[in-house]
């Protein structure tokens, strides 16, 4: 830690209050920030961990409309769910506030007014869609119409969710307002813009003075600054009725842009926490500001917020922004709308008392330099093969043997062998290795160095085998067990940032008050003669059945998503002549058998009314041969024959296929003679 800093403010991105928190959020910023903060606290550094719910913006108003409740009711609900889950997971915020608070509204409003009075903003009149029935301007999401690309009649003004095309409301065919259904009209409106183009040289100098930032963050900032058009002015106000009202004349019906007010939330939350001393943290040169975020927020924290702070004056600027990449789930992007996620509040229910297992897995797999994947199999392996088999096994052996041989009293070490000295030397090096990794935001490396200490202990016991030696050399065993206990104690100290629940429990088992980080540089923290508490297992195995429950849950989401998928878009127009070239007849299945060495195909004999013929059909997953004999189907009889698995197939049975890929025969509702023409 750079000694010029006396204080640190650590912020984690304000989570958006229109849904609960999932593992992608945790791995992106809340967990790494928590590890960082816990490490600084343990090192005796003055640090404050600031966060809160982001409660403004259009998506919250849309959710409220959909559910027929007020925006305030939406944010109240999620503020509580998120706050409770974070707390239970051991995210050790000093304050978890919210942007609908009075302090925040006042702070954000004053901040805007200061910039306004300093003539920082430019005013621009633009044309925006307006709903004349509802008498209000419409955010892009409030406008729906037909997608010009795929014909989806429910495309939004910013995106078509069927074909994924980004749109602007002007591109929609027959746009209408979701508020009143009326056709929106373009109307002039004035908004206040932050002239990032003009501020660009200052921002550039600021970014370039931080070339030590993580390459993914620095690189992204540079590419915005240096790309073709460079930075563009951005509107800092919106025509909306949910948010912080714009505090200037002529701005009725407008609120601050949610990305203007949200980062100010870090300041207002600090104010709330420290009404008398918050300025020591935000306005003093020996204070350091660090934003933990996910990569989608880089522009707001590295460019927009610093510009706001610079133009306001008096504030420290972010000293580092260690943004993470994204975490995927079982090989697929985490998605709230598709319910493809592991929700924190559900995890805490399903895996009671296992917070540290998820903390460990997410840290060991953190998407620090590239997107990464969370899988339940890997979660199970991290628990069973590392936390249980290495760390847990070492601690358990040490505690059990101490009770067995010495009734829980720590034996004194006598003569150290060369092997002992090497182990102690290695142990003493661990805190610096872990510190260095944490201070450089390399949390994966840090947690793996910690696990290496457990490996060291586990190997030491396996090599020295005190359980055998006890029969021949009791004195030697005392030294071995003393060393094993010192390793256990240092594991408790060094593990606290990563596994706070386990560290606390381990200190309890060792019958000790928690020790600070610097103590781990010593290898004699446990005095001979001190009595430890009765042993208890720190971790238990995660069984296959536990994992299957989670996989089933995801499978269910997948099935529901597929069922909810809109029908595929219509094909291009065809002519009646083209259609009438197809000779489709009703037919009856006379015989059916599986085609050997395949699991999809059935060989069918059909009576078509014209003849009896063989058809091979890929329906084995949906129909058993014995169930379909006598079934009436429709058959394309003039399809050119072709050989499938050595059998000549003469025609094709008509099947309906749904979004899940399930197949069903298409059959006449009324009994029709074989050979009846389908037209
Ligand atoms: Zn589309």
Helix-strand layout with pairing:
Elements: E1 7-12, H1 23-42, E2 46-53, H2 58-67, H3 71-88, E3 95-98, H4 102-117, E4 122-131, E5 136-137, E6 143-146, E7 155-156, E8 173-177, E9 185-194, H5 196-208, H6 215-226, E10 234-235, E11 237-239, E12 254-256, H7 258-273, H8 278-282, E13 287-292, H9 298-312, E14 318-320, E15 327-329, E16 332-333, H10 344-350, H11 355-364, E17 372-374, H12 376-406, H13 418-439, H14 443-464, H15 466-469, H16 474-495, H17 500-509, H18 544-564, H19 576-580, E18 584-594, E19 602-607, E20 612-617, H20 625-628, E21 632-636, E22 642-644, E23 647-649, E24 652-653, E25 655-657, E26 663-665, E27 677-678
Parallel strand pairs: 1-2, 1-13, 2-3, 13-14, 15-17
Antiparallel strand pairs: 4-5, 4-9, 6-7, 6-8, 9-10, 11-12, 15-16, 18-19, 18-21, 18-27, 19-20, 21-24, 22-23, 25-26
Helix pairs in contact: 2-3, 4-7, 5-6, 5-9, 7-9, 11-12, 12-14, 12-16, 13-14, 13-16, 14-16, 16-17
Notable features of this structure?
alpha+beta; 20 helices; 18% strand; flat; binds zinc ion
